[in-house]
Design a protein that fits this description.
single chain; 17% strand; alpha/beta; TIM Barrel
Length: 246
Amino acid sequence: MKLLVSVESLEEARVAVEAGCAVLDIKNPNEGSLGANFPWVLKSIMDEFPDLECETSATIGDLPHKPGTAALAAYTVSSLGLDYVKGGLYASTTFEQAVEMMRVIQQAVKMANPNARAVAAGFADWRRFNGLSTTDLVRAASASKVDVVLIDTAIKDGSNLFDNMGLDELQEFVGLCREAGIMCALAGSIKEKHLDDLARIGPDLTGVRGALCSDQSDRRSVIDPVRTRAFIQATEEAVRRAQRAA
């Protein structure tokens, strides 16, 4: 289980890289859980770290159901050389819509960068806004042949991943991804207290931002170097405990 640390600026990227993050994820929390950042911010970060040991990731937004817009955004971001490009299927409410969106995102990502992975991002709290179910999310990802499926939370009101999905549901989600041969990722207001459960569930990636911020009640505040290093260390320890117990 690799820790994906979400940043919104070059300054935050420096903090995350120095702390030893496994995946440096660039987003804009002012525009939602999968909010897209500006191209000049993405480029400044990629230019700053041309030889990163960690992987890189970026979001292209909590997307409306506009496949052409999504494909253009995916192509642009992929051309910057990132390892993962995440599209949030916020307005795709059916299996068919999700397949349509993810097929064009996958095609655009691979067209710009054959080594990049396209990520289909759905939401644990989908029931709260008539979104796409997590089961249909995995089915659509398999049908569109995307590389990774992510579950986050769309509504940032203090509820977290585990408030919206039980352990059994999360284990089923990871199992479905494994059966489909797709990488899986879990996020959504993750705290240190959740790490042992996450390590036992065993996603490939776990995403975090709010728990690293200087003001933990505001995910739009800057990430803190001490909290970031401590969370990365806690993640590594949780993974080791899960491995020993297996």
